[in-house]
Each structure stands twice: as structure tokens, then as C-alpha cells.
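Researcher: Here's a chain I'd like modeled. Treat it as a single chain, no partners, no ligands.
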Amino acid sequence: MTQRARSLIAGLRRVEHGLDAIIQPVVFMGMAALIGVITLQIISRVLFSAVEWTEELARFLLVWLTFLAGTLAFQRGRHIAVTFAVDALPARLRQLARLLATLVVVAFLIALAIISVEYMQVQSFQKSAALRVPMSYVYAVVPFCAAVMAWYAVVDAVELILTGDTHEPRETPL
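Model: Modeled as a single isolated chain. C-alpha cells:
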């Protein structure tokens, strides 16, 4: 591998780690907020009358946390994969199969990002029942995470093309 290829991969990985450094604390803060909201909901139901907005906020936080944490899992190569057939292939065919699969994932994620942006625009007039928050804010996590995962997959594809392998699963400290 040439020095130029190494520096390209290193630059792509720096962007990837920068995104990770942003998403990871957001997931942590979201989990803390979810725990706090659910605790408030339980206490208010037991001791007082239920605080109306807690159930809705907990639901929205759970949606955001699911997508953001799924993005982190994708970056670390932690999603479920059945690889026994690909692993049985000769090295060059295995690399080609992995590249093809990665490109299919990129295409799917780009389509998901585009469609979810269109969906956000269609639903932009709708507000949530209790919080009166535009639902487009709730749906915004889908195109964001699809775009970030597409970036991660593109980095994997470039690395596969240049080196013949990726660093899967990537270990990133929590």
C-alpha cells in the first residue's frame, strides 16, 4: 500500500472518529435524560398526578437513542452478520463479495436518507400531542444516522479497495 493510500485512509478514519466523538456523548446524555424522564414519570404517577409529557419525551428519546446507538454499533462492526459463506471463499472473491455487500449497504443508506428527508418534509406540519414539538425534529435522526452510516460504509469500501481488508470489528473505547 502506498503512502498516499495510507494517508487517505488515516484521514477518513479521523473523520470517522470525530463523528464517533460527537455521537457517543450524545448517546450517553440521552440515556441519562431517558432515565431521568422515566424516573420522573414513575414518581409523579405514584405520588402525584402523572406528568403528561414524560411518556412522549421518553418515547422520542428512545427513538433517537436507538438510531444513534445503532450508528455506533455499525461503526464498530457490531451488527448481526452471517459470514460463513463469504469466509469460505478464496481471498480475492471474499474481498469482492465484501465490497459488493458494502456498496449495497451504501446504496440502501443513501436511499434511506433521501426518503426520510422527504418524509420529514411531508410531516413538517405535524406537532406532537403533549410537547407540541414539530415531528420533523423527531424524524430528523433517521436521515442523519443514515448519512453517517453511509459515510462509515464508504470508508470501509475505500479501505477494502486500497488494502483488501477493513479493521472489522473496529474497537473504539467507550
